[in-house]
Amino acid sequence: MKKILIFFFAILISVSCTDNFEEINTRQDQPTTVNAEFLFSGVLRDSFKEKGSYWLNSILEWGNWIQHYGNQNAGFTTAHYIDIDRYNDAFWADHYESISDLRFAKQLAAEQNSGDALRVKLAIIEILEIVLWQRLTDVVGDVPYNEAILGSENTTPTFDTQQSIYSDLFTRLDAAIGNLNASDFEFLGGADFLYGGNVENWIKFANFQKLKMGLRISNADAGLAQSTVTAAMGSSLPASNGDNAILPLIGNTEAANEHPLADLIDRTVDAPYAGETLVETLKSLNDPRLGIMINPTANSISGGGPLEYVGIPAAPSDAQYATINANQDDFSRPNTTWYASLDFDKGLNVMTFAEVSFAKAEAALRGWGGTGADAQTYFEEGIRAAMTMTPFAEAGLASTDIDDYVTAHGTLAGTFDEQLEQIQTQKWIVFFVDQEDEAFSEWRRTGFPQLTPGLNPGETGGTIPRRLKYHANEELLNEANYNSAVSRLSNGDTFMSRVWWDQ
User: Fold this and answer.
1) What residue ranges carry the coiled-coil annotation (predicted)?
2) Is the pTM of this model over 0.85?
């Protein structure tokens, strides 16, 4: 009887395994399919936190070049205008990988959705892709665009001119905006870290992208710039700090989710310090944000005061580096309590109402969709928005301090250039920490704030760089098209060549 039962159960198990073989042998913790929302979320997080190489590009390159940061370590050569290929390579590769992911997300959305859900998802994914294309071409110049990301179909893509890329991005952006309605359902929901799928916010975000891109080409194609900016000024734009696009970083949790600056600030050998130009600008304006943005020097704290704020100069000479390294506690670092702490989630700014207001002020100053009186209104709105957004409101910045600052510095005056300098200086302050790429692009476009190069000549002869170089593999694996693109650059594939709109 025992043998019969064993035989019976053996047959039963055999049949059961055969009937459910595929299900039993499929790991449930490793899904074989992915949805469009998952890829969209990943690109959102990576593009503004990890990819774009925060440490390499945002701090050691752009942040040092536009003098928000200073660095005490002479080994970080990009801080004093000497190139390291892997920094350029990381920026290039990260952007193409993210754009490729978004292309795949569109494909998946088309397979998994239809009707309004498909329309909305494709439009929002498209807007994010346009943002990444603009950032890539703004920093590098002419890049593979129409023939890019075709895989084995084309491994040697041509480099499209930045002018043609911008023209196509404007067309694509208008189409994406036209495919969205403020009343659309929030199909992306929690997959959208910026707006929770809120379509009205994405429309405002896209309209500001159009305004920003229009201003970006103001020196290269004034006619197109004016028509684009004027149209954007007449559209629905972010109207308060409640419309800010902030990437949450989930404070009070594991370090992997913290602000990228938090991991860097505690390093002893290569920690970023505050730039001398930033510190001295805030001090000269008697800016109440100084102590929230920047820490006092360690020696002034340990000595019982008075508290001192001292930044590291741009591109120090060898002699300056020696002095800085011997006296590191005499220099200030960014204030991670409010900017990059696990105990306080400031989030990472992707777009702020302050930035929008300053862009509107410039547009109105130019007479593109506004008047001189409008420029003044937008300028003051920008200052107030900048001083009441996170982390300044949470840090307790008093309304009376804001009123006093606006009274002292909130009135546009002087020539066009003098008023533009006022606007751009305030925008430059807002870009500190999270938007160094924008600070770099806006300084190149307008020349404001006025920056003095450091004493270290580097490979630019002591001139602040104007662009990043191409990925090293392009010269090796795509030589003909690389050479064609380089031939269009005024100084070859170097830091000193200017992109199309940088005139």
Assistant:
1) none
2) yes
